[in-house]
């Protein structure tokens, strides 16, 4: 029996990075995967590639900030599958800026995608989880500790941390329960980080070198190294886990 055999799993931000790794892992674990994103070409391409490998996978365009978009996406899931077992609220953006220089537009956009998108996702998924389910919210170590240059990102990811706990308490009272947990990655080598990683700062050091120096395990994570926790939380192996924060950061926040 595969870990997600016959489960219907929807993943937002599925076209790239962590979302693509979660989608592939869920497909290999036997799930019917709904890949949701705004990058239609990459999302459709990955869904096609997974189908070519024998998996059950389909692409659904979804801007997570759109209430109407969630209604349309969930109507499509209901129509095709009749239910949803797992939702990974993974879509996110990272705009840099300290509390002193973050523009209101960047603040608002970050909260819209990284926090409101997660709220809309949890709310939209619950009616399709009447047979129970699991919601996995992708927060960050920056939802647990501060980073001076990522004020809006920290505010949004910190919001996801406690929204997860609130939703978990609601979900625990449902019969059968819906479990809700958050994952807190440290630095992961994905398109989100890659753009900035290899640019040297004034002293000639790259962000990659600085992160490697800060991280006890001495390197960034690969997306596949976050997959194990996702599969645990999404599958029945995690059936007694709810309202929990799973940090996967190479020891970064242990210091
Ligand atoms: P990525 O940039 O590789 O992928 C993000 C995906 O989200 C893209 O496919 C993008 O099209 C999609 N997306 C963006 N806005 C969207 C919207 N409004 N609606 C639907 N989809 C949208 O990023 P990565 O690194 O894979 O990040 C995934 C999640 O992991 C994010 O929530 C991020 O904040 C979080 N994270 C990433 C870390 C890292 O170091 N890469 C560390 C900690 C957390």
Automatic annotation (TrEMBL):
Q: Does the keyword Oxidoreductase apply?
A: yes
Start and end residues of each Ketoreductase domain: 7-190
Q: Name one Pfam family in it.
A: adh_short_C2
Source superkingdom: Bacteria
Q: Does the keyword Oxidoreductase apply?
A: yes
Alphabetical UniProt keywords: Oxidoreductase
Q: What PROSITE patterns does its record include?
A: ADH_SHORT
Give the similarity note: Belongs to the short-chain dehydrogenases/reductases (SDR) family.
Q: What is this protein called?
A: SDR family oxidoreductase
Q: What organism is recorded for this protein?
A: Cupriavidus basilensis
């Amino acid at each position: 029996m595969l870990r997600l055999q016959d489960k219907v799993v929807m993943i937002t931000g599925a076209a790239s990075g962590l979302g693509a790794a979660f989608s592939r892992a869920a497909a290999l674990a036997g799930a019917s995967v709904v890949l949701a994103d705004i990058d239609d070409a990459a999302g459709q391409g990955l869904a096609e590639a997974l189908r070519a490998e024998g998996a059950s996978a389909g692409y659904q365009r979804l801007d997570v900030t759109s209430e109407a978009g969630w209604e349309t996406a969930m109507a499509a899931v209901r129509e095709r599958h009749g239910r949803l077992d797992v939702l990974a609220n993974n879509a996110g953006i990272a705009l840099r800026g300290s509390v002193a220089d973050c523009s209101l537009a960047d603040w608002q956009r970050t909260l819209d995608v990284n926090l409101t998108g997660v709220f809309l996702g949890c709310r939209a998924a619950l009616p399709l989880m009447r047979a129970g389910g699991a919601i996995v919210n992708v927060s960050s170590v920056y939802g647990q500790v501060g980073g001076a240059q990522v004020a809006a990102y920290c505010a949004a990811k910190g919001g996801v941390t406690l929204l997860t706990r609130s939703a978990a308490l609601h979900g625990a009272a449902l019969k059968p329960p819906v479990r809700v947990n958050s994952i807190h990655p440290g630095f992961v080598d994905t398109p989100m980080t890659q753009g900035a990683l290899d640019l040297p700062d004034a002293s000639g050091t790259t962000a990659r070198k600085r992160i490697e120096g800060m991280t006890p395990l001495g390197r960034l994570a690969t997306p596949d190294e976050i997959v194990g926790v996702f599969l645990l939380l999404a599958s029945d192996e995690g059936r007694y886990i709810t309202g929990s924060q799973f940090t996967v950061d190479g020891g970064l926040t242990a210091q």
